[in-house]
Amino acid sequence: MTKGLVFNVQRYSVHDGGGIRTIIFLKGCPLRCPWCSNPESRKAVAPTTWTKNGQQETIGQWQTKEELVDEVMKDEIFYRTSGGGVTLSGGEVLMQADFAAELLAEFNYLGVHTAIETTGCFPVKEIQKLTPFVQQVLFDLKIMDPIKSKQVIGVDIQTVKENFEFLLSQDQLELIPRIPLIPEYTTEPANLLAMIDYLQNLEIKEVHLLPFHQYGSSKYDYLGWDYQMKDAVPLTNSQVDTIKNQFEAAGITANVDGLE
Ligand code: SF4
């Protein structure tokens, strides 16, 4: 029986898609965003151990499609009454694209709204496995400069753009760009200008902005990893408003949303 590696299932979420949702966090991500708030999800599709409050814990459990469907369907009534559903997040969902496609197909069959979060960091053929079964894609855009993107987060921006543009061509799904607002990285003026230029050229009318936070910092301690953002100062409301206004002046509605 096929299994997927899951490191969390979060019920009653009001982020990451519309309405009340269950978020399934799939483990594994090839990127290395310094601000990552789920560092335990990174690297290979394999369980990780960390030490929390003196206790060693294993992060990541192999679960079958049936187990996950049973868990998600407990809240079916909430999805129907709130316009919610299920969201596959990560990590990077494309690391387990075959399993994700199986899960999404099942939720489609059951009439549950499906969303995914992705950075679009693999060749387009991976996301094509998922698109027949997805109604909404929350697509992270981070660093637009090709060299910095590769250096800082380890992703080829050209691949990201190919994925984004492929999804944009799929009329059956809703594509929402999400931009984490990370001081000294994504909020650099040249990066914001490049982002707005790219989105304007594609006639994108709406983005979600995700202001930086440090909620994941203790996880780096549990993992024994260095947290590069420990001295970073979160943006003020006024700085977030300035960025929001910059998008809106370019004709792109910017919603300040949940946090990356
Ligand atoms: S893509 Fe997401 S999960 Fe992967 S390193 Fe970046 S923030 Fe973390």
Automatic annotation (TrEMBL):
Pfam families: Radical_SAM. PROSITE patterns: RADICAL_ACTIVATING (PS01087), RADICAL_SAM (PS51918). Residues 15-255 form the Radical SAM core domain. CDD domains: Radical_SAM. Its cofactor is [4Fe-4S] cluster. It comes from the Bacteria. Keywords: 4Fe-4S, Iron, Iron-sulfur, Metal-binding, Oxidoreductase, S-adenosyl-L-methionine. Belongs to the organic radical-activating enzymes family. NCBIfam families: PFLE_PFLC. This is Glycyl-radical enzyme activating protein. It comes from Candidatus Enterococcus moelleringii.
